[in-house]
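ok so I'm stuck.
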Amino acid sequence: MTTEWEQVDDYIAAHLLGDDPVLDAALAANAVGGLPAIDVSAAQGKMLHLFAKMCGARRILEVGTLGGYSTIWLARALPEHGRLVTLELEPHHAAVARANIARAGLAERVEVRVGPAVASLEAMIAAGEAPFDLVFIDADKPSNVAYLEAALALTQPGSTIVVDNVVREGGILDARSGDPRIDGTRALFEAVAAEPRLSATAVQTVGTKKWDGFLLAVVQG
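replied:
not stuck anymore, here's the structure
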């Protein structure tokens, strides 16, 4: 039996998103490939798409590809010569994502890099890669602070940083949880609060992904 939260998400999708065979195929391919069903919801994917549009993103960095569902939403917001770099630890996940991205007609705009994201980010910083206009972080939560620090090194004033799964059904209130995902998320809040270069908030969400939320930040000059 579906919850009212899930029914509301279905209502939103039916009225504002419509059918999307490409994204449906991506989720189906993820399931066939045995990937965990932890993608953002359709409404959240469209929200990320709109964020990218709102900030006029030409370069997007995603930390945590999974099967490329959120990648497709973000890449669709790019202009013709825009670029998205997405980082994925698992080679199998990356292979599924590349196939989904190619099916969506976005292979020329998206580069999937495989390996530990912290190492990939360090290499990008060392190489002096051009700054990104939007960074979406949705990977292992214990590394959230490391991802944030790397994002700050790879952005510029006016860039947007979005971090997923920052409420964890209220788990962030438990300072003694012992759960590394919660500890990593609490450390993220502390790091953002102490960072003068960021103006930030967090928004709770409910729906098909239960009770969670996003942290939203803009890099200041």
